[in-house]
C-alpha cells in the first residue's frame, strides 16, 4: 500500500510538472506578447510566438532531459488472444483492474519525457471555448450582410477544396508508390481525409491579424465568417470520411454506396448540430427572459456558461459534433440571449469567454510547437510534404476564384480581385487542422499526415501570417493600425458602425424580407426583451397568449431611446429599478444582403429536408442510426 | 481497429453524459437558488439545496437505471506475483499497454452506473479556485484586526480539536471492538486522521450564510478567517498523519519518533506553502508593476490567472500542499498585486474567481448528495456515527471556549459569550472535509469514516446552516438581511467601511508598528503603485536604487486624492492617460490589533525557523527529504 501511494504521488507530481511547464510557457508568451504590442512590433504574430516558445521547450525536452526507463512498469507480460478494454490481474487473491492505454510500439527503444496530452483534450476542453467565442462575438452586421458569400465559401468551397486536395494527394501518393518512397499503406480515403482536415482555415489567426489591422469590413467579414464555418465543415466532413471508410482493410477504394452514406452522415450531423445548438440558445433566451435572474449577475453568468457547455456535452452524448453545435449555440446566444442579460452579465460573459479563448488558443499553439520535437512517430517525407504544399494552394485557389466569379454574378458590390488574392493568401491553417490530425496517429498514413500538417501550420502562420501586412499594402487595401483593439469589444463595435456608411443599403428580396420581418416581429419579441411587444404584432385572436408572453420590460424599453452602448453603467440601483437595456431600434439592424439571405434560407431548408429524408431512409433500410443516437 | 474506435467513442459518450448530468444538475440548482432568493426564502441554504438535488439524482441512478454488465471488460484474467503500475499484453505480436486503475472488490456483484469522479479532481480542479477566492476576497480590515484570534483558533484550536476528536473516537472504537461491532482494522492513527479531516470548518457555507446576513463584522471576520485557515491546517495535519504512520501494518500505535517527524512535516509543509504562495504573489506584483501590462486588461487577467495557478502546480510538483499555497498566494495577490491592476482587470479577476468559486462549490455539494447513494462501499455503523457526532461537538467546544477565554485575557474588546456560542454552533463541515475523506477509501476504516463524514456534513449544513438565522435572533446578535449582497464586491466593501466606526483604534505595540511601518514604507512601494514613493522613505544613499524602483505612476497617484472606489470607471481613454488608481491613503488602512500582530509575527518567525531546523536536522540524520522534493 505504501509503495502504491508513493507511485501515485510520483505520477501526480509528474502531471503537475507537465502542466506547470505549459503554464509557465503561457506566462512567458503573455509577457512577450505585451512586449511586442508595447514596441509595436508586428511581423511575428502572437500565435507564431507561442509556437516558437513551444519549439524551444520541445528542443530542451528532446535533447536536454533524459528520463530513466521505469523498470517497475514493464515487469509483467501476459499473452492473450484478444485485446479487452480492461484487464483483471490476480495477485494472491486480490483483483486489480487495468485499463487499456493503447498499443505500444515495440521498436521504439528511447524513453522520451512524454509531455503529451490526450488528443481528446483539444476537442473537449480547448476547442469548445474558442469556437463558442467565435460564434458569440460574431454579432456583426457585416457578417450577416455577406452571409451568402460566407456560406458559399465555407460549405461549397471547403468541399471543393477537400476533393481537390484529396485528388492531388492521391496523385502524389501514386507517384511516391512508383518511386518506392512509401513505407506503408495510404489509401484513397486517407487522401480524402487529409483533404478534409487541411481545408479548414483558422479563425484564430485570421481574427487576430485582421482585427488588429482594421481592414475593409467586408473583407474581414468574409475571411472571418468563412474560417469559422469551414471549421465546422472540416470536422463533419472528416468524421464522415472516417466513419464510412469500408472496414475491410483491403477494399479501401471509395465505393458509391459508402460515398452516399458519407454524404448522408455529413448532412445529418451538420443539421443535427445546427438544430441542437440553436435550440440550446433559444432555451437560454427563454429562461433568461422569463425569470428575473438578471438581478443576480453571478447566477446569470453561471447559467449562461452552463447552458452553453451543456450544448457541447449533449451533442457529444448524442454522437453529433459538439464543436459545431457550440458554434451555432454561440451565434444564437449572441443574437437573442445577449439582449436579455443584465449589463453586468453582458460584460462578464464576454470577458469570460474572451479569457478562455485567449488561454486555449495560446495553449494550442505552444503545444503545436512542442509536438514537433516531442512527438515520437514523425514521418517526414519530402515528396509528400511538397505535394501537400502544392495541394493546399491548388485547393484554396479552386475554392476562392471560381466561387468568387459565381458570387460576383449575383452581388451588387463585387468581391474585387484584390480581395480574392488576400483571401487566397491569408488562408492560414491552425488549431482545428492540428486538433483533427493529432486525433488519430495510429497508422503510417496518419503519422505522415500529422507531420506534414504540422509543417504546413508552421509555414502558413509564420510566413503568411507575418506577410499579411506587406501583402495588404502591396494590394493597396486600406488599413490602419488600431493599437487598442484588444482592449474591449465595444471598441470594435463602434469601429464597425463608423465605417458602415460606406456600403449602401441593398435592395431586398421577398425571402429575405420574410425572414427578417418574422424574426423582428415574432422571434425576437418572443425570446428577448427587445423588439416591438408581441401584443402589437400578433393578430387580435392571440392577445391572451401575447399578453402572457410579453414581459413588462418590453414596454419600458420603448420609452428609452438613448443610444448609449457603454455596457458599464453601474450607477443605477439594482434592487428596484430595471437596468436600462439597449433600445430595439439599435439592436435589429442586422440588415442582410438579399442574395445572401436566399442562399441561407435555401441552405437551411435543404439541410433540414436532407436530415429528415436520410433518417427516414435509414429507418426504412434498417440501418440503425437511431441505435447509435 | 474499428471495434476499438467504437469502444473509445462509447466511453467518450458515457463521459460526456456523466458531465452533462452534473451540468444540468447545476443549472437546476441555479434556477432554484434564484427562486429562493426571489421569494426571500432562506431556511434552506443554497449548498443544502445542491445536496438535495444531488441526493435525488443519486436515488434515480441507484434505483432507476440498470446498467448491463460489460462483458468485454473482464474476459482475461492474468495471475501474477506483483502488482505493477502498468502491464503489457501480447496479442499475436502486438503489445498493448494497460494502466492500473485500482483494486476491484471481488464481493461487489452489482454493476451500478458509476457517476463517480476521480477524487483527485476535487483536490486539483475544484478546491484551488475556492480556496484562492477565499484568500483573494479576504482583503478586509476586520480580518487583519482579528488576525491573532483567527490564527489562534485556526492553528492551535484545530490541532486541539483534532486530538480531542481522535481520542474520543479511539474510545468509541475500543467500545465497538468490545461489543463486537468492528469488522476490520481501526488503528489509533486512523482515529487521529479522522480527527484531522473532520476538524476543518467550511468557509463556503460560512461565507454564504454570514455574508448574506450582515452580522457583526468582528464575528464574521472571526468565523470566516478561522474557517479558511483551518482548511489549510486540516490538509497538512491529515497528510502528516498519513505520511508518518508506520508502514508495518502491525505497529500502528504512534511512537514518539513518528510523532516528532509528523510534527516536522506539518511545520515544514505549512511554512513551505506559505513561502511559496507569498513568493508567487510578490512575483506577480513585481511583474504587474514594472511592465505596462495594464494597458491590455486581457493579458493582465490571463497573467494573473496563470501565475496563481502556477503556484498550485509548483507546490504540488514540490510535494507540498498546493491548496495551502494557493490560499497564501490569494492573500498576497489581494494585498499587493490588486493595487497594480488596471480598473478593468480588477473587476475581471474578481468576477472570474467569483464564478469559478460558485461553480466549483455547487458542484462539490451536489456531488456530495450524489455520493450518498452512488458510492458502493458505504459502512454505516450506528455506534461510530453517534461517537463521531459526540466527538465533533466536544472537539469544537475544546477549540472555542478555552481559547476564547485565553484570548479575552489579552484583547481590548472581548469575544462575548454569545459570539462564542455562535462560533460553536456555526462550525459547519463541508467541501474540504468531504474532499479529504473521499481521497482514500481503500480500507474498512476509511470507508466507515467516509460514510460518517458524509452524514455529518449533511447534518451540519442542513440543520446548523438552516438554524443559523434563528440562532442569531435568539442570541440577540444584530443582523440585517442584505438582499443584494451577492451582486458585487464593492457593496461589501462599503458595508464594512460604514460600520467601521463602531470599533475604535487599538493601542499599538512595537512589533506591530514595526511590521506595519515596514510594509507601508518599503514593501508596498516596492511591489505596488501605492504608498509613498521609495525615494522619500529610503535613506539618501539608496537614491539611485529607489529611483529605478519607483514607477512614474506613484507620483501621479499622489496628486489624486479622490475617494471614488467604484471600479467601473470606463470613461477614461486608455492609450494616453493613466487610469486613476485608488489613493494610497485609502488602501493602507489595514490597521491591525497589536496582540494579533504579535501572534502573527511570532508565528511566521517560528514557522520559518522550524522549517530550517527541520530540514537541517533531516540532512544531518540522512533522511532524504530533499530527495522527495
Q: Please summarize the sheet with the most strands of chain A.
A: 2 strands, antiparallel
Cα radius of gyration of chain A in angstroms? 26 Å
Biggest interface reads: A-B, 101 and 101 residues
β-strand percent of chain A reads under 5%
Structure description:
The structure is a homodimer of 629-residue chains. Helix content of chain A is 68%, strand content 3%. With 629 residues, chain A is mainly alpha-helical. Chain A has a two-stranded antiparallel ribbon with strand order 2-3. In chain A, helix 5 (147-178) runs antiparallel to helix 13 (382-410). Mean pLDDT of chain A is 73; it is low at 69-75, 106-113, 248-252, 482-509, 555-596 and 621-629. Chains A, B: GO terms for molecular function: potassium:proton antiporter activity; sodium:proton antiporter activity. Chains A, B: Residues 29-472 form the Cation/H+ exchanger transmembrane domain. Chains A, B: Belongs to the monovalent cation:proton antiporter 1 (CPA1) transporter (TC 2.A.36) family. Chains A, B: Its main location: membrane. Chains A, B: The chain crosses the membrane at residues 19-36, 48-65, 150-180, 186-210, 264-290, 302-335, 355-373, 380-398, 418-436, 448-465, 598-628.
Amino acid at each position: 500500500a505504501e509503495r502504491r501511494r508513493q507511485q501515485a504521488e510520483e505520477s501526480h507530481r509528474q502531471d503537475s510538472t507537465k502542466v506547470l511547464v505549459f503554464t509557465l510557457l503561457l506566462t512567458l508568451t503573455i509577457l512577450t506578447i505585451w512586449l511586442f504590442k508595447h514596441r509595436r512590433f508586428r511581423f511575428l504574430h502572437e500565435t507564431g510566438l507561442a509556437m516558437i516558445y513551444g519549439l524551444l521547450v520541445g528542443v530542451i525536452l528532446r535533447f536536454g532531459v533524459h528520463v530513466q526507463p521505469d523498470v517497475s512498469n514493464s515487469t509483467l507480460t501476459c499473452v492473450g488472444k484478444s485485446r479487452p478494454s480492461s484487464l483483471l490481474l490476480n495477485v494472491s487473491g486480490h483483483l486489480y483492474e487495468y485499463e487499456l492505454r493503447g498499443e505500444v510500439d515495440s521498436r521504439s527503444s528511447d524513453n522520451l519525457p512524454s509531455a503529451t496530452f490526450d488528443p481528446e483534450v483539444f476537442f473537449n476542453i480547448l476547442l469548445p471555448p474558442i469556437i463558442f467565442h467565435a460564434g458569440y462575438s460574431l454579432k456583426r452586421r457585416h457578417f450577416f450582410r455577406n452571409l451568402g458569400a460566407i456560406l458559399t465559401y465555407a460549405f461549397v468551397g471547403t468541399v471543393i477544396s477537400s476533393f481537390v486536395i484529396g485528388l492531388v494527394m492521391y496523385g502524389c501518393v501514386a507517384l511516391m508508390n512508383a518511386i518506392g518512397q512509401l513505407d506503408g499503406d495510404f489509401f484513397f480515403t486517407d487522401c480524402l481525409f487529409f483533404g478534409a482536415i487541411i481545408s479548414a482555415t483558422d479563425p484564430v489567426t485570421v481574427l487576430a491579424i485582421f482585427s488588429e489591422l482594421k481592414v475593409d469590413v467586408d473583407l474581414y467579414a468574409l475571411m472571418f465568417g468563412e474560417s469559422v464555418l469551414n471549421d465546422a465543415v472540416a470536422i463533419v466532413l472528416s468524421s464522415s470520411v472516417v466513419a464510412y471508410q469500408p472496414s475491410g482493410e483491403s477494399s479501401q477504394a471509395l465505393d458509391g454506396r459508402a460515398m452516399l452514406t458519407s454524404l448522408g452522415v455529413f448532412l445529418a450531423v451538420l443539421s443535427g448540430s445546427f438544430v441542437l445548438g440553436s435550440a440550446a440558445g433559444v432555451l437560454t433566451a427563454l429562461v433568461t427572459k422569463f425569470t428575473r435572474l438578471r438581478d443576480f449577475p453571478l447566477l446569470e453568468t453561471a447559467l449562461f456558461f452552463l447552458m452553453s457547455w451543456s450544448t457541447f456535452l449533449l451533442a457529444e452524448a448524442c454522437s453529433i459534433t459538439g464543436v459545431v453545435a457550440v458554434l451555432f449555440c454561440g451565434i444564437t446566444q449572441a443574437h437573442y440571449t445577449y439582449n436579455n442579460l443584465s449589463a453586468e452579465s453582458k460584460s462578464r460573459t464576454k470577458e469570460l469567454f474572451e479569457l478562455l479563448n485567449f488561454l486555449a488558443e495560446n495553449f494550442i499553439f505552444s503545444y503545436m510547437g512542442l509536438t514537433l520535437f516531442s512527438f515520437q512517430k514523425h514521418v517526414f517525407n519530402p515528396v509528400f510534404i511538397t505535394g501537400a504544399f502544392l495541394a493546399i494552394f491548388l485547393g484554396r485557389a479552386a475554392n476562392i476564384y471560381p466561387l468568387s466569379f459565381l458570387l460576383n454574378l449575383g452581388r451588387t458590390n463585387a468581391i474585387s480581385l484584390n480581395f480574392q488574392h488576400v483571401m487566397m493568401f491569408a488562408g492560414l491553417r491552425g488549431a482545428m487542422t492540428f486538433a483533427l490530425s493529432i486525433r488519430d496517429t495510429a497508422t503510417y498514413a496518419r503519422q505522415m499526415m500529422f507531420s506534414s500538417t504540422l509543417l504546413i501550420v508552421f509555414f502558413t502562420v509564420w510566413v503568411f501570417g507575418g506577410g499579411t501586412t506587406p501583402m495588404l499594402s502591396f494590394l493597396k487595401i486600406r488599413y490602419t493600425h488600431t493599437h487598442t483593439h484588444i482592449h474591449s469589444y465595444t471598441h470594435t463595435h463602434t469601429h464597425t458602425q463608423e465605417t458602415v456608411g460606406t456600403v449602401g443599403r441593398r435592395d431586398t428580396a421577398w425571402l429575405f424580407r420574410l425572414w427578417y420581418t418574422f424574426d423582428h416581429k415574432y422571434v425576437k419579441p418572443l425570446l428577448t426583451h427587445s423588439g416591438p411587444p408581441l401584443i402589437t404584432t400578433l393578430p387580435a385572436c392571440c392577445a391572451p397568449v401575447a399578453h402572457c408572453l410579453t414581459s413588462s420590460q418590453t414596454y419600458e424599453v420603448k420609452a428609452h431611446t438613448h443610444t448609449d452602448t457603454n455596457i458599464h453603467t453601474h450607477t443605477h440601483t439594482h434592487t428596484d429599478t430595471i437596468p436600462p437595456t439597449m433600445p430595439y431600434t439599435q439592436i435589429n439592424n442586422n440588415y442582410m444582403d438579399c442574395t445572401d439571405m436566399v442562399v441561407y434560407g435555401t441552405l437551411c431548408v435543404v439541410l433540414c429536408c436532407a436530415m429528415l429524408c436520410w433518417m427516414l431512409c435509414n429507418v426504412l433500410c434498417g440501418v440503425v442510426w437511431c441505435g447509435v443516437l
